[in-house]
Amino acid sequence: MDWTIKWLDSAEYFQVDMSGVFSLADARSASSDIVAQPFWNNGTSVLIDTTGVVTDKIGASDIEFMILMMEPLDAEINGSKVALVGGSDILFGLARQFQTTAEGHISADIRPFRLAQAAVEWLTQPALPASIPKRASNS
């Protein structure tokens, strides 16, 4: 599997374009390459476009193993938004399976998208402020 990593300075997120036949070893290398980038910090957003990935041999055990591979990187991705773009039903379904399996194991906010435009909108929207509890009125 091949990948390219670009820092989009104007939007302040990384874009990773993946293509070729999926392999766990390549997924691990790509993940390590992302967090090794010079502009990477906790909370940095990343769009991972998997529309060019061939997924003929990915199963549930591969998704679980990818989560185990990501756990050691959790300190580096803490607070990050990760948009997984999969244009086909299969790629979107795998991204959704990764999201649900990662909950409780990885602290990044991971979301699947069918279209890159929707992913970019989510990545670049400002974070909502934490809700402030209302005070009880004295009336």
Topology:
Layout: E1 2-8, E2 13-21, H1 24-35, E3 45-54, H2 60-70, H3 74-77, E4 81-85, H4 89-102, E5 109-113, H5 116-124
Parallel strand pairs: 2-3, 3-4, 4-5
Antiparallel strand pairs: 1-2
Structure, described:
There is one protein chain. The chain has 5 helices and 5 strands, in the order ββαβααβαβα. With 139 residues, the protein is an alpha/beta fold. Helix 1 packs parallel to helix 2 (60-70) and helix 2 crosses helix 4 (89-102). The longest helix is centred in the C-terminal third of the chain and has 14 residues, at 89-102. The model has no long low-confidence stretch (mean pLDDT 88).
What's the tally of helices? 5
Order of helices and strands: EEHEHHEHEH
General shape:
globular
CA radius of gyration is: 16 Å
Beta-strand content bin:
25-35%
Q: What low-confidence regions span 5 or more consecutive residues with pLDDT below 50? A: none
Could you give the count of β-strands?
5
N- to C-terminal separation?
65 Å
Major sheet size, sense and barrel closure: 5 strands, mixed
SSE class: alpha/beta
Q: Whole-number average pLDDT?
A: 88
The helix fraction, in percent, is 25-40%
With strands numbered from the N-terminus, the spatial order across the biggest sheet is 1-2-3-4-5
